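Worked example 2:
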Amino acid sequence: MKKTSTRLADGRELIYYDSRDDAVRDAVDRRPLDPTVTTSEVRRDPLLGDSVAIASHRQGRTYHPPANECPLCPSEGDRLSEIPDSSYDVVVFENRFPSLAGDSGRCEVVCFTSDHDSSFADLTEEQAGLVLEAWTDRTAELSHLPAVEQVFCFENRGAEIGVTLGHPHGQIYAYPFTTPRTALMLRSLAAHKEATGGENLFDEVVARELADGSRVVLSSDHWVAFVPYAAHWPYEVHLYPRRRVPDLLGLDEDARTEFPKVYLELLRRFDRIFGEGEPATPYISGWHQAPFGALEEFEGVNRDDFALHLELFTIRRTSGKLKFLAGSESGMSVFINDIQPESAAQRLREVASS
């Protein structure tokens, strides 16, 4: 992999990740852009104890542009985009309309391919492997920023999810705090460790799923994917490396090599859940990584106790119908799942590639 860092016309950082070592990336951003101005701030809710990012400047962000005006396609002639070069493998750049910025963290956009009409599931294993390298590199770099405590690499896919740009891409949020979801896992991890005299909860969850087998979707030498026992979403899969590591940086070479094949198979199965002729399945996919900040509030737990895993889920519960987060979910954070997890796992096994 070759990494080339440059600056856009408004000062934002852009990084090319190329599979070829001889790639030359010297194109200049020719757009007349003013310096980026953001109003992001993080406010803490005193009752719930969580944090909310206030980012009112994002109201003017690009919204469903036509394909010939896509800001994530390579620049071509007089059509200038966020990517100055005329082609690319994988690109990461600072978001022009970030939810988090400065002392409040950082937001980046990850373009998986220059092909506007493609998707992550259409990538080759080599291309998917390069995306993994980019995720890993950005996790390492962002973890060194003073304001950053946790790095979240994720993809929103589909208009139903709220995606406003059709080009295949994801995002990276570098939070200035440990997120509420991760804090809940760390508290459960700490309580279990104390109650059992040092046993790891993540290890036990994976071991139980493998022993039961009814919710396992696929397994390989270095990865295992399953629908969790208490799945929140209609079709939800958690993907774990068999060797527990706290973050993407901890993956060994064997796990990195095998990941593209396993992950691409999962994504392709998701597109087959509802049968032939159905539109592409909307989904959210994201990596849960251990925070880089101090963990003193989670007594007895350290970073190595956390288990890196990817969560992939869709909000579509059946053909043409979505799972809405209504009163119970949105008002009280109590999910009600319309699909039995064992049935979801069975369906995901049925649609395996031949």
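The first strand starts at residue 2 and ends at 7. The chain has a mean pLDDT of 95.
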